[in-house]
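dumping this here before i forget
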Amino acid sequence: DAIRFIRLEPVQAQLVLFCEDGDRLFAHLVGGTHDADGDFAPVGNEDFFKVGHRSSLRSCSIGKRFVSLRKPEETSSRAIWPEPVRRERVGLSTKKEKNMTRFKDKRILITGGTSGIGLATAKRIVDEGGEVAVTGVTQDHLDQAGRSLPSGSLVLRNDASDPQAAKDLAAKIKDQMGTIDGAYLNAGFGANMATEDVDAEGFDAMMDVNVRGVALQMAALKPLINDGGAVLVTSSVAPYLGGAKGAIYAATKASCAAMARSWARDLAARNIRVNSVAPGPIETNFFDALGKGGA
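structure:
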């Protein structure tokens, strides 16, 4: 009760939640960089420290949920970034925990789960006691997921660009898993297109997968998600960065974030949490393909 909310605002495309508790300011950072040694460097600039007209915040310590910013003993005229500090991985332990059971007896569906972020998520859920179903289109990725995930995991071919695919997926999940505790709607497609090269075919290709596909998946899967469950939707930093050749892709991912907000309100009565995540560039096959003009 002593912690007072100040505001939520963007800082260089990262959302930051500012609160204060006496002479301490707290900033919940959605973003930052971490080097191979685990050091943390926040994303932002000097203006980040000018919170509520408080200047010259100095030290930074990383906890599991918050970056804690303290006012310095002496006020100076210029606010600067603190030196990177060793930190525990935000939300996760740096050491293998003996009893990792957050997902014990939980059933999770991950679309676009046969490679990249989706497959890494599936592996983590399985490691923590969960059961997963993953979808994909590319045969090599389907085979890879089948080898990577334990026996009993569902690896399903499902093309989100097909309007019928969402209903087919829901039927398969209901038959094989009954209900699910969470859905990660991660299937996506991206391509670089210069403004003058945008045509109806390219526009429809991305909208069909990234917007219509996600919307139809949510419509079909909603009755299968247990009360108290969770939904996660992959958006992107693309809508905030404004890439010269990324207008259409960015528009699709902005739509994902917008839909997630509406679904959160819709499903709140059932205590189902809905969030979107906005990854930046990550070394996956998707990013490699996007850099070549397709995905």
